[in-house]
Design the sequence.
């Protein structure tokens, strides 16, 4: 188990280093000098040069990379070129919108998918199964921004249960959660549809396994057999998808954030790109990569918790 | 054998049990009785209804199949029970052991939990009591706590040990009836002998009735007090073991018996032929997983300094138990993997060169595997499937020649040239294996490697395929390397046998001699463990066709 943990940790650190290098290089080779962008077309060359020095853009690339990297490790993400405020603070504000939103969406999609998948698998071929499968088909097909607008139309404009957008901050947690509810539902639905299908097919695979027949021969009813022996075995493929979905939710919420006018990471990175605020882009992307890699690490650990064979295979 | 029955009323009665599914008869008028402490063997070929009979008793028939007739366990009618009542009977009054120990256990639960579960479902015992009973039962089946603690997971056990766990689960509550469906078919001969002994002693000591399902007549004759032979869902003959073997009234029984002991008549081995396959001091290592990151890798030597020579026209058998290295050696001979030491040459040329199989050599060597269905692409027609080896030829044959050669190969294996347009699902298991042989033959190799090629076949089909192999060897002067765990099959189709154990060849000699005067203790052990057919006067052996 310890070896497994060490191996996973080593690969986590290597992935992070490689990712930081790739992000840095990609952003660096992108055209557009932040200093000239900030000063406009008519700027004097020496003013630009002065700003470049001020922003730290005149030192060699490798030195900037290491400065960036060591800064991030100590929590200093540098100053935003555009807003002249610490990047760390900017990201932290946005992070506390995007992260809870992703977690809510993920929890919601799991809460929908597990019972629905179980129900469909246990009644394979029945009308109920076909109903669930048809609904998931629809869930996968509907674009989530359209669904988001429908939610706004129904629940914010007609019923006036929720506000149509914006985020009041975490001073009142209940109000904050309420503001995130509609976006979370919009994000969760397509994910729930996919997860339901994965859950169903994973369970159906397990139902055909010999050990399920053994469980019946012991005297377990069909339902008990699924519950006690099927579920945990079906979890591995489901966990994989949940891990992938979380990464997608965290980084891929840009459109939903636009629809609901939420100050999340997606919007931040979008604005930073248009303003050539490279340091913000680099830092947000790095943070997202970090989140994705950490989530995958967590998924790997859960695998090992679920499946003893993985623990043994180190 | 457990001999006399202690109780007069049968433990299990099946009287006129029928199972039909969408008008298709699965079981027809099956009537059996089984007493306490008695072993009844249900035998027959695949599809004869043996397993369906067991599942009907368990009330676990697949889908919406229902059994009709009379089915009584210890006087109680089973067919009128509700599903909830059957759940209380399964595991409590009837225990069941399955064929495939590798997959019959839940991989993510410890063996202790799985055995204890049977007890917890049916009794008021608390968790601790259930676990201590589980420990007792595991010890009873030969898995004592000091070496096999309850916290072990199935993947930490061998196939034979897993089968013991399955048996422990089945007998934990001392059921009245134990059903064992091909309990040893997936196991090595020495493990098989141990598991059969265990089942026999359980019946004797715990007073259970055992319904044992097996296709293997040699196992049957060794184990059962009584036998029921099934064919097409019906019991065609039943009686006490010795009596049934002595009489064999039904022609099907005689056919099964004859096929089980079938000897193919091999053409004489050509004398002083040139060496064809030369395996010289070959070793094959596999890297083991590291236990400490970045530590130097340990290796496992799967094949250890193996040498032998196969001469043109010779038929060599390679026997050994699972994990002995025979599959690794086969892959090395086929040139699929490099070896760490030694050389393998076919007709003087290395089988593996420049990091891949040497195509010059692969043309002269073909292989037939165990699973005839898995080795064919179901979306291609037979004509395309069996011409796959043509890609090994330098010059692809033209359309007309292609057609000729397909027809020739299909005729050679006893199929019709018209079969070329069919898909693989239209063929039976035996026919599929004929197609696999046709595919091997089509580029006229000199050596065919049979890797467990008849292990999955029913006895009568197996006998036919063995005859076909003997014929082809005569007709095309083929050499065979015949790899199998089944000693009796190897005996009939080879001139020489190599016995492999832990990566080494421990015995190498003419087939007759190895079987009658084995030199190595391991060979003797294997031969002793192999179940044998009873000696029946030769006039009985000639079954009417």
Sequence:
């Amino acid at each position: 188990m310890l070896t497994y943990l060490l191996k996973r940790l080593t690969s986590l650190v290597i992935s992070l280093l490689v990712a930081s290098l790739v992000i840095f290089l990609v952003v660096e080779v992108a055209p557009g000098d932040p200093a000239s962008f900030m000063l406009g077309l008519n700027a004097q060359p020496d003013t630009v040069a002065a700003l470049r020095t001020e922003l730290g853009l005149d030192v060699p690339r490798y030195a900037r990379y290491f400065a960036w990297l060591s800064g991030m490790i100590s929590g200093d993400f540098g100053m935003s070129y555009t807003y002249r405020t610490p990047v760390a603070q900017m990201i932290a504000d946005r992070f506390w919108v995007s992260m809870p939103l992703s977690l809510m969406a993920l929890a919601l999609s799991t809460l929908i998918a597990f019972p629905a998948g179980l129900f469909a698998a246990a009644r394979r071929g029945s009308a109920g199964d076909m109903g669930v499968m048809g609904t998931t088909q629809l869930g996968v097909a509907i674009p989530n921004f359209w669904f988001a607008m429908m939610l706004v139309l129904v629940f914010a404009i007609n019923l006036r249960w929720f506000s149509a957008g914006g985020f009041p901050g975490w001073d009142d947690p209940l109000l904050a959660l309420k503001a995130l509810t509609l976006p979370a539902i919009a994000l969760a639905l397509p994910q729930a549809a996919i997860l339901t299908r994965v859950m169903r097919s994973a369970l159906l695979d397990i139902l055909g396994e010999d050990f399920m027949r053994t469980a019946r021969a012991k005297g377990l009813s069909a339902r008990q057999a699924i519950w006690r022996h099927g579920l945990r075995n079906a979890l591995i493929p489901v966990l994989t998808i949940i891990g992938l979905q979380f990464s997608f939710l965290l980084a891929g919420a840009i459109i939903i954030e636009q629809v609901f006018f939420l100050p999340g990471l997606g919007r931040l990175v979008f604005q930073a790109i248009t303003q050539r605020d490279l340091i913000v882009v680099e830092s947000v992307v790095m943070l997202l990569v970090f989140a994705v890699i950490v989530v995958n690490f967590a998924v790997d650990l859960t695998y090992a918790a679920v499946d003893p064979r993985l623990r043994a295979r180190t | 054998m457990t001999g006399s029955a202690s109780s007069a009323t049968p433990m299990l009665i099946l009287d006129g049990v029928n199972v039909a599914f969408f008008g298709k008869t699965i079981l027809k008028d099956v009537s059996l009785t089984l007493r306490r402490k008695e072993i009844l063997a249900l035998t027959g070929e695949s599809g004869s209804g043996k397993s369906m009979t067991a599942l009907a008793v368990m009330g676990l028939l697949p889908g919406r199949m229902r059994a009709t007739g009379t089915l009584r366990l210890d006087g109680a009618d089973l067919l009128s029970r509700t599903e909830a009542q059957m759940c209380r009977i399964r595991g409590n009054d009837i225990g069941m052991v399955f064929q495939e120990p590798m997959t019959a256990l839940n991989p993510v639960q410890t063996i202790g939990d799985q055995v204890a579960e049977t007890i917890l479902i049916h009794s008021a015992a608390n968790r601790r009591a259930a676990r201590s009973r589980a420990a007792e039962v595991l010890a009873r089946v030969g898995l004592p706590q000091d070496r096999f603690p309850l916290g072990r997971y199935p993947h930490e056990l061998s196939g034979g040990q897993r089968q013991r766990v399955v048996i422990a689960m089945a007998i934990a509550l001392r059921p009245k009836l134990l059903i064992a469906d091909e309990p040893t078919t997936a196991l090595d001969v020495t493990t098989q002998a141990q598991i059969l002994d265990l089942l026999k002693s359980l019946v004797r000591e715990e007073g259970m009735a055992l319904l044992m399902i097996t296709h293997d007549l040699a196992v049957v004759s060794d184990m059962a007090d009584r036998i029921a032979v099934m064919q097409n869902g019906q019991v065609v003959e039943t009686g006490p073991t010795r009596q049934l073997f002595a009489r064999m009234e039904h022609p099907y029984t005689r056919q099964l018996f004859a096929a089980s002991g079938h000897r193919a008549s091999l053409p004489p081995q050509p004398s002083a032929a040139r060496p064809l396959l030369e395996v010289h001091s070959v070793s094959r290592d596999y890297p083991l997983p590291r236990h400490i990151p970045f530590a130097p890798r340990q290796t496992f030597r799967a094949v250890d300094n193996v040498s032998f020579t196969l001469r043109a026209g010779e038929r060599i058998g390679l026997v050994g138990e699972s994990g002995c290295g025979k599959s690794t050696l086969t892959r090395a001979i086929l040139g699929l993997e490099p070896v760490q030491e030694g050389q393998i040459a076919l007709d003087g040329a290395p089988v593996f060169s420049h990091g891949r199989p040497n195509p010059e050599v692969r043309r002269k060597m073909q292989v037939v595997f165990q699973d005839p269905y898995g080795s064919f692409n179901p979306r291609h027609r037979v004509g395309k499937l069996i011409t796959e080896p043509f890609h090994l030829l330098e010059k692809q044959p033209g359309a007309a020649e292609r057609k000729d050669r397909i027809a020739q190969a299909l005729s050679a294996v006893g199929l019709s040239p018209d079969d070329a347009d069919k898909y693989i699902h239209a063929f039976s298991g035996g026919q599929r294996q004929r197609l696999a042989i046709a595919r091997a033959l089509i580029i006229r190799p000199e050596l065919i490697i049979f890797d467990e090629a008849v292990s999955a076949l029913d006895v009568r089909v197996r006998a036919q395929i063995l005859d076909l192999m003997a014929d082809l060897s005569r007709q095309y002067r083929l050499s065979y390397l015949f790899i199998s765990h089944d000693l009796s099959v190897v005996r009939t189709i080879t001139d020489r046998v190599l016995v492999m154990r832990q990566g080494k060849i421990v015995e190498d000699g003419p087939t007759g001699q190895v079987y009658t005067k084995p030199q190595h203790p391991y060979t003797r052990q294997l031969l002793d463990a192999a179940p044998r057919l009873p000696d029946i006067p030769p006039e009985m052996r000639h079954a009417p066709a």
